[in-house]
Each structure stands twice: as C-alpha cells, then as structure tokens.
Design goal:
Layout lengths: L20 H21 L1 H6 L4 H27 L2
Helix pairs in contact: 1-3
Length: 81
C-alpha cells in the first residue's frame, strides 16, 4: 500500500451525495426537548444537588439546534435558486 499517489494515478473524486440535514436536526431538537422536559420534572432534586446547569445545557442545545435548522433552511433556499 502506498501513501502518496501521483495525480495521474488518482481516481476522480465521487460526486457529493444530496442529503436532507433537516431531518437529523429535527431528531436532535426532539431529543433536547425530551431531555429538557425530564429535567423540568426533576427540577427540585436537580437544584438540591447543585446541578441546575444541566437544565441550561438542554436549553442551549435546543437553541443551537433551532439556529442550525434555520441555517439549513436558508441555505437550502439559496441553493435551489
């Protein structure tokens, strides 16, 4: 096995695969919502243990997922023009 190939020996790069990233983002957002709901149910023991930052981690994940969803929606709209 050789590590380096000459340009003349290389095969052409494959075509990129079209994917729908929004589905994966929606699954992730759904999991963050589920995690946030569970944490809200157990807010008192969570606060007593000093782990209230777990709640804010779930909120941050949810917000970042929504930003990513908006970004992919806008990017998909620009690409289809």
């Amino acid at each position: 096995m050789r590590i380096w190939l000459k340009d003349s020996e290389r095969r052409p790069d494959p075509e990129p695969v079209e994917t729908d990233d929004r589905k994966a983002m929606l699954v992730g957002i759904g999991l963050w919502v589920l995690g946030l709901a569970v944490l809200l149910i157990f807010i008192e023991p969570l606060n007593a243990a000093g782990n209230l930052w777990w709640l804010w981690t779930a909120v941050a994940g949810l917000v970042l997922g929504l930003i990513g969803l908006i970004y992919t929606h806008v990017r998909r709209g620009k690409r289809s023009r």
